[in-house]
Amino acid sequence: MFPPLNFINFAAEIDMSTSKINIRNLSFPEIKEQFEIMGEKSFRAKQVYEWLWQKNASTFEEMSNLSKDLRVKMEEQFFIDKIQLDDQQISSDRTIKCSFEVEPGKVVEGVLIPTNSRTTACISSQVGCSLACTFCATGRLKLMRNLTAGEIVDQVVYLRDQAESRYGQPLSNIVYMGMGEPLLNYKNVLRSTEILTSTEGLGISPRRITVSTAGIAKMIHKLGDDEVKFNLAVSLHAANDKKRSQIMEINDTNDLESLKTALQHFYAKTGSRVTYEYIIFKDFNDELEDAQELAEFCKCVPCKINIIEYNPIDEGEHKQADPVKVDAFAQYLEDRNLVVNIRRSRGKDIDAACGQLANKNKSITPEQLKLKK
Fold first, then answer.
1. What pTM was computed for the model?
2. Deepest in the core among 11, 77, 322, 343, taking most CB within 10 A?
């Protein structure tokens, strides 16, 4: 039999109604350890892990190369969490937005962005968000809970399958830029990247994965200590504390100086250059003076800059910057030998562009759920 719960040396999610453990929250070594304790051969753990991630099994019954007795034991001890597709929209530019239900009344969104050069899955890490950035629709939703590692990976698997079946293209990149702040769900985000990159999992190169943060300095420092292999992007949007605090409350507790120190530590530990995401707003952060401040901040570590056009949200207080000003802003940075990309939005007609993910008509209250039933 499996060991009692108090012998398990990890913080796995437990279904309190059944005391079953979420097996997809366990790493390959942890699953292997459990099988060794129960007297099973270690190769059984590899079989189970492959069923969970490479073959995308939803039940233990599907694991046909395991004995019936073992499948019954696993059913008694574990459960498999799976997200369900709730809704899907396809943009005129081929962008696909998917709403996934993680439990009744809790929905997250993931987006597939196909271009001529790459096919990217933009995935969520939390149901809602606690940061309340003024330009982001997700920030208007309350934080309901973190996603598990399995729920994060499920989004990638579904979007990968859509890329292959609809467009005949392999998934080339993954960005944690959907709903939520990834570094406030640190354990599950890192576990999900382990699953995505491991040979027993999906085998994706960590250099094809980017985790985007609003700038949690303490956790960026920890990323450096953990010597992560994936890419880091920082939602900067202003290189001036006063302006940044106006649009991002997180800057009040994680100001630019603390962010700079954390990024220097991250670069010293990983050797990875940082990407700065800079949404450019009309008459707010689009002047050459703003570009000068950004260029000065960029001296702290090797970097590249993505200038992103603003995507309006309902009753939003910001407006899209003039294209002439955007080009002049980018040129100023390029003249100072900085790597700059102007990122044009995709999927705007289905509210799938950067900052627009908000589960319109999807996040419902418990009272609404009762009526729905």
1. 0.87
2. 77
